[in-house]
C-alpha cells in the first residue's frame, strides 16, 4: 500500500510516521509513505502556495497551480492511486471507509489549510473527500495521519496478528469488548472468571455479549446499522436477568 501526502508542513509527520506499528510496516515494506511539500511546486521564488480569496473575506486560500503540479507529479508515478482531500465537506471517516480505502493500490492525500483550497483542485483532481467529523482543525495534516493509521491497520501484514483488526471496535459494527491482562486482581477488581476458564466457546460468547452491552450503553445508534442474530438477542436477555 502506497501513501503520498501533499502538505505545506511535512515536518508534522515525523513523529507519527516514525514510531510503533507504522514504523515497522514501513521498514518491512508493507506500506510506503511519501511526503511531498506543496511549496516545491510553487511558481515564484518565495514558494507562495496561498493567496487572498476572490470576492474578499478573511484568511487565505491554497493556490491551484502548486497543488495541480504536485498532484500531477505524484500521479505520474502512481497512476492507480486515489486522490483524497481532507475537508469538512467530505464524507465522514469511519471503519467502513477505512476498509474500503485499504483495498486501493495507493492513496494521494491532499492536506487542506487556511480557509480552504481553490475549488478547481477539487473539480479537476480529487476523487474523494474525507472529513473526520463536525469540527474544525487547523489543517488537514492531523486528518491525514488518522487516515494513514486507520487504513494501514487493515492492510494485510501490517499488524502482528492477522486476526487483530477483525476484533477492533467497529469492525463488526459494535464496540470492542472489555480487555484484561495480568494481574488477575487489582485493588479489589477481579478479571471475570470466564476469561480464566480456558473455555474458548464461553469466552467468545462472553465477549460477544459484552460488545453488544457496551454498544447499547455508549453508542446505541450503532445498533440501528446492524442486524442482531437470535443468539445475540438471547445474550441480551440473559444479561438483563
UniProtKB/TrEMBL annotation:
Residues reported to bind S-adenosyl-L-methionine: 112, 132-137
GO CC annotations, alphabetized: cytosol
Q: Which EC class is this protein assigned?
A: transferase
The tRNA methyltransferase TRMD/TRM10-type domain, residue ranges: 1-224
* SUPFAM superfamilies named in the record: alpha/beta knot (SSF75217)
Q: Which InterPro entries match?
A: Alpha/beta_knot_MTases, tRNA_m1G_MeTrfase_C_sf, tRNA_m1G_MeTrfase_TrmD, tRNA_m1G_MTases_N, tRNA_MeTrfase_TRMD/TRM10
Q: Where in the cell is it found?
A: Cytoplasm
Q: Which UniProt keywords apply?
A: Cytoplasm, Methyltransferase, S-adenosyl-L-methionine, Transferase, tRNA processing
One GO term under biological process is: tRNA N1-guanine methylation
- Reaction(s) catalysed by this chain's protein: guanosine(37) in tRNA + S-adenosyl-L-methionine = N(1)-methylguanosine(37) in tRNA + S-adenosyl-L-homocysteine + H(+)
Q: Does the keyword Transferase apply?
A: yes
A GO molecular function held by the record: tRNA (guanine(37)-N1)-methyltransferase activity
Q: What is its EC number?
A: 2.1.1.228
Q: Can you tell me which family this protein belongs to?
A: Belongs to the RNA methyltransferase TrmD family.
What function does this protein fulfil?
Answer: Specifically methylates guanosine-37 in various tRNAs.
* Identification of the protein by name: tRNA (guanine-N(1)-)-methyltransferase
Q: Which organism is it from?
A: Geomesophilobacter sediminis
Query: Which gene is this protein's source?
Result: trmD
Amino acid at each position: 500500500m502506497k501513501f503520498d501526502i501533499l502538505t505545506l508542513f511535512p515536518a508534522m509527520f515525523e513523529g507519527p510516521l516514525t514510531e510503533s506499528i507504522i514504523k515497522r510496516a514501513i521498514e518491512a515494506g508493507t506500506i510506503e509513505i511519501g511526503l511531498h511539500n506543496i511549496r516545491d511546486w510553487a511558481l515564484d521564488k518565495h514558494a507562495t502556495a496561498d493567496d487572498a480569496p476572490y470576492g474578499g473575506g478573511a484568511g487565505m486560500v491554497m493556490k491551484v497551480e502548486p497543488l495541480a503540479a504536485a498532484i500531477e507529479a505524484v500521479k505520474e508515478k502512481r497512476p492507480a492511486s486515489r486522490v483524497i482531500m481532507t475537508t469538512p465537506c467530505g464524507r465522514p471517516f469511519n471503519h467502513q471507509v477505512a476498509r474500503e480505502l485499504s483495498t486501493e493500490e495507493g492513496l494521494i492525500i491532499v492536506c487542506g489549510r487556511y480557509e480552504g483550497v481553490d475549488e478547481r483542485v477539487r473539480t479537476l483532481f480529487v476523487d474523494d473527500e474525507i472529513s473526520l467529523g463536525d469540527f474544525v482543525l487547523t489543517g488537514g495534516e492531523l486528518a491525514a495521519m488518522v487516515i494513514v493509521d486507520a487504513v494501514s491497520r487493515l492492510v494485510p501484514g501490517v499488524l502482528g496478528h492477522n486476526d487483530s483488526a477483525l476484533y477492533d471496535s467497529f469492525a463488526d459494527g459494535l464496540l470492542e469488548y472489555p480487555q484484561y491482562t495480568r494481574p488477575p486482581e487489582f485493588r479489589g477488581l477481579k478479571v471475570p472468571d470466564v476469561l480464566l476458564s480456558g473455555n474458548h466457546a464461553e469466552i467468545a460468547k462472553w465477549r460477544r455479549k459484552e460488545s453488544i452491552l457496551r454498544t447499547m450503553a455508549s453508542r446505541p445508534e450503532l445498533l440501528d446499522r446492524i442486524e442482531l442474530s437470535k443468539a445475540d438477542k438471547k445474550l441480551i436477555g440473559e444479561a438483563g436477568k
